[in-house]
Every structure is written in C-alpha cells, then in structure tokens.
Amino acid sequence: MAYSEIYKKIGFQRELNRLQKQAYFGYDREIKMLRNLGVEDENLILEVGSGPGFYTKILLDNFNNSEVVSLDNDETLLNFALKMLNKDYSNRVSFMNDDITNSSMPNDYFDIVVARFVFQHLQDPIKALKEIYRILKPGGKVIIIDVDSELWGLTYPKNNLINQLNSSLSKFQSSLNGNREIGRSLLTLMKLLKFKNLNIEAVINHSDILGKENFKYNLDKELEKDPRFGNILKEYNDFFNLNYSSIMILKLFFYGEKPI
Length: 260
Prior knowledge:
Helices cover 43% and strands 23% of the residues. By secondary structure, the chain is α/β, with parallel strands linked by helices. 28% of the residues are buried.
C-alpha cells in the first residue's frame, strides 16, 4: 500500500494535522541539536521526505540565510508545501519530486542532508544512504532523525496498552516494507558505507516538560464510534489523566560526514 493510499483512506486533512503536530512537537530542542551537530546559516540543506513542508518551514525560520531543497516522492504533499511556502520563502526554498534511493541530483552538491522520520519507512535504506553520500559535498554532513521501537514510549507506570500500540505500529510498518527498528542499525550501516566522524545523540520529549495534553490522541467523532479504535484510544488517553503518569519518547539523531 502506497503512503498516498493511506492518507486518502484516513483523510488528507487528518494526516496533515498529524504531520504538523509531529513537526512542531519539541522542535526547539531539535533545532538546538542540529546546531550542535554543525548545521549553520548559509548552508545548502536538502530535506529528505519533506512531505507537506511543516518541518521545511521550521528549518527556513531557524537558519535564516540557508537555502532548503524540499524533496519528496509524493506530488500531492509537495504541491501543498509549495503553496504554503513559496510566497514568503521563494528565494530560499525549492521543491523536487524525486526518490532519495535513485535521485536526479548532482554529485557533491549539498552541505547538509536532513532526513526526519524517513528511514523507518524505506524499503532499501542502504540505497538511500549511498545516494546521500553521492550528493553530499566532501565534508558535508548527514543528520538522520528517527526512532527505534524499543526506545519509544517509555512510560511511568509501565503501560502495556502503549506497548501494544507500539508493537502494532511496528507490524503495520513492516507490512509496508518499513522498519520501526531502524534505529539500532543506522550507525552501523553508515560506517559500512564509509561515512566518517560518526555520532549519535538523542532529544527526549517528556510529558512533564512538554505537557501531557500534547501526548494525547485527538479523538474525532468518527474514531470514537469505531469499535476497533475508539475504546483503545480512549484508554490510551485515560492514562494521561492520572496525576502521576508520564511518558518519554526518544528521538535519535544519527550523524556522519562524507570524507574530504
């Protein structure tokens, strides 16, 4: 099943709302980490899997003198991003409908490549890493932001329902040829492909810092009536109504450089 088929099934606006929340959730900590890992103003940045452009806007707003190339293989999402961003950022953003595993981009071109929550969806992450290596300038940096299912959704007290939801999500991604356990293998794959100065860092979203409400699922009337999801998601939200409950989610930052 293609990603476009999924959002057509669940509703395009609902998926946009999810992606917007995902982009802005704890983004200020992500920007600090990107700076710590060497992203600077006046860089030429490729954002892989940019989707509707919410994170593209974050990059443009925080690296004011950088240019961003927004790459995605979904034309509908790219068109949405173009309409949203082109008026205010037209001199600093461009859009490419392309495939990161086999792109048309030139060799040795980008200062920075950022891929946020993309590699968990890729059928062939090695091909994508080889392509990123090719298009980076010598000395250029790749930063992959992603997860590993066993480090996602750590709760206090331990909540089996959240573990079950995470397990179901992992199985669903596997059925789409993705891999929600990609986090444990990424740095090793980067080493095998000759990236240098490897590093891994983490940014943690914690409910006692960002607020429990931000971790709840927004139930609409349609989902509430659905017997498959309504009760499960209500139970999930009820966990956050406990005055002593908390959750933390690790976003992993994998870093490497193309040798000079």
